[in-house]
Amino acid sequence: MLEYLTRYWWIPLVQGLLGIGFGVVAFLQPGMTLAVLVIYFGAWVLVDGVFASVGAIANRRFSSDWPFALVLGLLGIAVGILTLRSPAATELALLIYIAAWALLKGAMEIALAIKLRNEIEGEWWLALAGVASVAFALLLLWNPAPGALALLWLLASYAIAFGVLFVALGLRVRSFRRQMELPRGVMSPRN
Predict the structure, then answer these.
(1) Does some domain include residue 190?
(2) Total number of domains in the chain
(3) Over the stretch 94-133, which tens digit does the pLDDT of each residue have?
(4) Could you tell me if residue 55 is inside a domain?
């Protein structure tokens, strides 16, 4: 798992930048219709699912848990396609799509952070991203009928928080990779 993370450190960085981009666009365009928001969200989840799936397949040699990451990526692809195919779907159906995706994504991120806690420093960034995903899902399920603007702000806030945490994770793993490349004896175990 550590080999995979250090080799593909840029994947969470790209995922984070996409999330931040989506959140910023959503905040800057509050008057956009819900249909346009749905298209932006669908595209973001679809691209995130593709990256997660590619990462899982690339990781299959390094981890026995790769099928779970692949399922999560395929779920993201499916939610993205469903969202893009029917942007006029009811707000409730959209909320359920988004909440289910965020809940599963958060659970997987928390589980991976727990698994990595003894291998790398800074794994808590991944755990925080998972907690943010789960909290976002629970907020959506708790009040399934918010107004379109409230949904926009909630979704944009989540995307930016997720994005910042994943950018930080990607940069931390990148710096860990550089530490691993130093000659033996130069690096302490948890610097």
Answers:
(1) no
(2) 1
(3) 677 778 888 888 898 898 888 887 777 777 888 898 898 8
(4) yes
